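I have been asked to look over a protein record a colleague put together. Alongside the sequence sits a line of tokens, each denoting a local backbone shape. Please read both lines and tell me whether the tokens look consistent with the sequence. Take the sequence as given and treat only the tokens as open to question. I have pasted the whole thing underneath without changing anything:
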Amino acid sequence: MRTGAANIIKTSQDSRFREWLKLLTITGFAQGLVQAVGLVSGILIIRLLPTEEYALYTLANTMLGTMTVLADGGISTGVMSQGGKVWNDRKKLGAVLATGLELRRKFAIASFAIALPILVYLLRHHHASWLTTILIVVSLIPAFFAALSDSLLEIVPKLHQEIVPLQRNQVEVGIGRLFLSALLLFIFPWTFVAILAAGIPRIYGNIKLRKIARKFHEDSDSNSKVRQEILTVVKKSLPMCIYYVLSGQISLWVISFFGEVNTIAELGALSRLAAVFTLVSVMANTLIVPRFSRMEDNKNKLLKLFLAILLAVGLLSAFLLLITSLFPQEILWILGDEYKNLGFELVLNVLVSCIGLLAVIGSGLIQSRGWVLNSTYMVAMNIVTLAFGAIVFDLSTLTGVLYYNILAVSGHFIMVFLYGLYSILKSKQV
């Protein structure tokens, strides 16, 4: 009997190992392809757009990210935590998704109203004509429209670990962006054309994503109880989202207000080389975060997995930083001659990405459980850090801003890590 039980356990363990190996292989290959296509698209845009146009492109993309984060406000975190509780009930999962989408649309109006005047000011501040400014603003609409729902729709197949259709859709969107960028920018090397080339494939991908998600949920009306639960998370998360907008893109914000247009282009170009960090983040959010969300409240298991994930990410980040330090000029060759003298800045930027990756994955893990850090602490830390950085570093230069960013993301990671430990140790020992 004991031998039979042992064989059953071993078979179960082998099956789980094969399942994880299959998921990692599929996700790794697909995301590697997505990031490779994205990197090629980004490099193509850097090389085809004049420096001034690429600076405007960087500003517009930064504002698109800002609008997307503000339009979310923690809604996706609430949908993930609520969906993790009812992921195997089609009707209830449909109600969670419908409620999240309804809230997202309302938040989007406020987000657009806040971000639009700032974008117009920054574009005009950097000498964009009124025609160029209007074209850039209009070109952002397709990508912003798609962003309102795709991050919520992805939660449904992620909770069911239906990875292959999700990855296929992302590959198709990436290839579509590369094709349009290559086709249009050779003829029309303008910022709004590059933005449209990225936004139109996202609309196509959003339509397909709805079909993928519909396999696992029933169409349903929003639910008042679910809305209240999501808004509870939003109330805790919204200040954090604002903090992420300010701190996560602080280098670009500071350069945009105090730096020159060439410096904006340089920082934007360096950021394009962080595709591998995006790959790791997407794989974690696709494979690990949903499973962490679904785990029982067992603090021993949660603690071991939390620390193991961060340790693995830390080791990978250290390896990537070492490679960058050894071969900076070879990496910068990808960007072109305009950026070949940024070797030291490249290493600093990769260090920022390494620490930021740890913070993002750690934050995603704890938020997937519905644990949201009191934003007062993060905002207070950001204010102190900004004041200290303004005194110590020259924030009108790229190097000074990168030093400040290292300080900011380090403080962020430390707080996320400590809060994660605190939240896990409060969990029940089942």
User: Anything to note?
Assistant: The first helix runs from residue 2 to 48.
